[in-house]
Structures are given as C-alpha cells and as structure tokens.
Amino acid sequence: MLIFLFSSLDDPLGSTIYNDDFDAIVVIEETEPTAIKINEIRKERNMLPLNIFVIQLCYSRRRHSNFIYSVFAKEK
To answer: What architecture does CATH give domain 21-75?
Structure first.
C-alpha cells in the first residue's frame, strides 16, 4: 500500500532536512537542483536520501502565465 503525504514548503528546503519520515520528493525541472541540495544536506546529517521524481508543469489557460503553479491552485 502506498501512502502519500503532502507538505507545503515554508522555505525552499521545508522539513525534508529535519524529518526522516520522507521517502521521496516530487519537483518540477526548475526546482530539481533544490532537491539535489536537500539530499546533500540529508547525507551530511546521516539521513537516507530522497527519491527524486521530476515532473513537467501543466499548461495553464491564464493569460499571465503559461504554467500552473501551486499559488494558482491555492486561489480556488
């Protein structure tokens, strides 16, 4: 059985560098370097690295943006 927990990030690294309960992180292409940095920090802290899943952005019908970001999802 898979269990998905979603966590908002209050800073670029979030709680991923403190909480060892995470197994994976889903990022977009532009934030993949941050996920790699997270794994470097986790390694320094003797934590297991996260599996990194890179996804593509969805296109938006909004005029001011070509992509859907989480800030748009929060507007609803």
So the answer is: 3-Layer(aba) Sandwich (3.40)
Give the burial class of 35: count Cβ atoms within 10 A of its Cβ; 0-12 exposed, 13-18 middle, 19 or more buried.
buried
Digit-by-digit pLDDT tens for the chain (76 residues) are: 677 777 666 788 888 999 998 899 988 888 899 999 999 999 999 999 999 999 887 665 665 555 555 544 444 4
- 12-25 burial string, b = 16+ CB within 10 Å, else e? eebebbeeeebeeb
SS3 category, 72: helix
Break the chain into its structural domains and give their ranges. Answer: 21-75
Question: Is the pTM here over 0.85, yes or no?
Answer: no
DSSP string, 22-53: --EEEEEGGGHHHHHHHHHHHHHTT-PPPEEE
